[in-house]
């Protein structure tokens, strides 16, 4: 059965928007190749950069070798949202019900604009012309369901009513991950698995039954399966919230600067989140409304793939106000903003948010990732490195440091057997500088490793700088018979000692000298 005509969705997609916004922000020409890098890898590039051989996921050095004139930009959500506001305003002047999904993508009900211009083709021509006046290229798609409309926009296709599933069926399975979402990594892993199982087209995946998908794959696979079958993205919100859930902020003094707008947005986001939490709800569609001293009213609706956290609300308020206040002359407000409103248009049960241990929504990890990416942007890609479990015998050998954002590939495979490897648990802290210590026997003489790989005397005391401890227990030594063929290679051994208190030490002996290699909690 075909859905009612007023249920159809029109999507406007601006290809490579982060790269387009970066070029516009830097004042570059349309012919200049541009790439946006995150964690030293290309996440978005312009069409001219792709023609030169630049691809998503490519490392910075390889991208520059293929395109020496490539302009490198860093991710900037504020810039992307600010420069997308004129595009949204141009569409809003011709059609009602515009909702911004993210900078570079917006949707609206198709029925009104089609009836106004007489046909879907005429509406598309008018909307493309309006977007072109903002200096941007776009593609438009129309379909029964919102996810299908987004895919159709990427192909510039107007899907006939009731034909969403046949339109999706022949497309590659990778189209299910073309639009980033909250479970981007899980979706990529799912599509890789489906490809290895021989399900290369969306129709192949859609042919599976719901029982087969739910019993074999994760939660994100259920969402992807509904998209492949062109089922509704999510049902309309059945509940209506009381008016007092919406928040209103009189601005004293009136807001005419972006920094003041960001502060007001953070305050309003906190209030709205508290009201929604008290009502056991979470916002999935948010209307941001502003009034000015001259009596002007501005409004924009943001639709979100997942319930908004306080940080998500604050980001969208800041982006929207930044876009309004920095519009070109003639389109921006003629007076300062005096009143701000945040109105939850659509809500979901609060259980849709995965709460953290202290009542937050897991946004701490997101803030930490943003901070790391920011450090990389300031100091370079190699300034932030993370450890990956590798193969080896000692704790230092078992860690491979890779640049944050790169593929976590170890130097050596940790799977094969490693005779002589330190048993679990591993030290909680690894001492890269390996500070010197002294291991003493009961008579005060130094303990060393004999030719048979044993202690010369039972260890009793450990001295570290000016401090000393009497050992409560010890284990070892374990002789390291490595690189015996190399000239000048000295025998080494490891031992574990327990000190009074919370710590135990992993010691390394080489050339009759002891040093601390790790600390156990």
From TrEMBL:
Poorly processive, error-prone DNA polymerase involved in untargeted mutagenesis. Copies undamaged DNA at stalled replication forks, which arise in vivo from mismatched or misaligned primer ends. These misaligned primers can be extended by PolIV. Exhibits no 3'-5' exonuclease (proofreading) activity. May be involved in translesional synthesis, in conjunction with the beta clamp from PolIII. GO terms for biological process: DNA repair. Pfam families: IMS. Signal peptide: none annotated. Residues 32-101 form the UmuC domain. It comes from Nocardia speluncae. The keyword Phosphoprotein does not apply. Belongs to the DNA polymerase type-Y family. SUPFAM superfamilies: DNA/RNA polymerases. Keywords: DNA damage. CDD domains: PolY_like. The keyword Iron does not apply. InterPro entries: DNA/RNA_pol_sf, Rev_trsase/Diguanyl_cyclase, SulA_CellDiv_inhibitor, UmuC. The lineage of its organism: Bacteria, Bacillati, Actinomycetota, Actinomycetes, Mycobacteriales. This is DNA polymerase Y family protein. PANTHER family: BLR3025 PROTEIN, BLR3025 PROTEIN-RELATED.
């Amino acid at each position: 059965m075909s859905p009612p005509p007023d249920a159809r969705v029109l999507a406007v997609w601006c290809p490579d928007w982060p790269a387009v916004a970066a070029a516009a922000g830097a004042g570059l020409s349309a012919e200049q190749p541009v790439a946006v890098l995150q964690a030293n890898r290309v996440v978005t590039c312009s069409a001219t950069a792709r023609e030169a051989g630049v691809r998503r996921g490519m490392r910075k050095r390889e991208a520059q070798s293929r395109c020496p004139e490539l302009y490198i930009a860093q991710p900037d959500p504020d810039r992307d949202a600010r420069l997308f506001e004129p595009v949204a305003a141009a569409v809003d002047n011709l059609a009602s019900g515009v909702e911004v999904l993210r900078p570079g993508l917006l949707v609206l009900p198709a029925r009104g604009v089609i009836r106004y211009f007489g046909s879907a083709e005429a509406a598309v021509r008018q909307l493309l012309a309006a977007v072109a006046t903002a200096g941007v290229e776009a593609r438009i798609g129309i379909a029964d369901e919102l996810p299908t409309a987004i895919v159709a926009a990427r192909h510039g296709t107007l899907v006939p009513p009731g034909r969403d599933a046949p339109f999706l069926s022949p497309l590659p399975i990778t189209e299910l991950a073309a639009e980033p979402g909250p479970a981007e990594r899980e979706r990529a892993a799912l599509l890789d698995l489906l490809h290895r199982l021989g399900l290369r087209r969306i129709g192949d995946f859609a042919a599976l039954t719901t029982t087969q998908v739910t019993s074999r794959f994760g939660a994100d696979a259920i969402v992807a399966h509904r998209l492949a079958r062109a089922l509704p993205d999510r049902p309309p919100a059945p509940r209506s919230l009381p008016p007092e859930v919406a928040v209103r902020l009189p601005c004293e003094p009136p807001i005419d600067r972006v920094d003041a707008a960001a502060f007001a947005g953070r305050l309003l986001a906190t209030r709205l989140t508290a009201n929604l939490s008290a009502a056991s709800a979470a916002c999935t569609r948010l209307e941001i409304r502003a009034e000015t001293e001259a009596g002007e009213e501005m409004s924009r609706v943001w639709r979100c793939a997942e319930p908004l956290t306080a940080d998500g609300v604050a980001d969208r308020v800041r982006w929207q106000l930044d876009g309004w206040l920095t519009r070109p002359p003639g389109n921006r407000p003629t007076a300062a903003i005096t009143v701000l409103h945040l109105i939850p248009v659509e809500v979901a049960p609060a259980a849709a948010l995965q709460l953290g241990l202290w009542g937050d929504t897991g946004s701490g990890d997101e803030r930490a990732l943003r901070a790391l990416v920011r450090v990389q942007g300031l100091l370079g890609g190699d300034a932030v490195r993370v450890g990956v479990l590798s193969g080896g015998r000692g704790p230092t050998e078992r860690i491979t440091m890779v640049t944050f954002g790169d593929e976590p590939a170890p130097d050596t495979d940790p799977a094969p057997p490693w005779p002589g490897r330190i048993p679990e648990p591993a030290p909680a802290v690894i001492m890269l500088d390996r500070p010197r210590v002294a291991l003493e026997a009961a008579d005060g003489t130094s303990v060393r490793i004999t030719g048979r790989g044993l202690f010369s005397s039972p260890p009793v005391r450990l001295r570290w700088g000016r401090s000393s401890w009497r050992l409560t227990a010890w284990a070892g030594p374990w002789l390291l018979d490595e690189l015996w063929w190399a000239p000048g290679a000295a025998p080494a051994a490891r031992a574990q000692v327990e000190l009074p208190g919370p710590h135990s030490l992993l010691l390394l002996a080489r050339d009759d000298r002891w040093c601390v290699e790790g600390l156990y909690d």
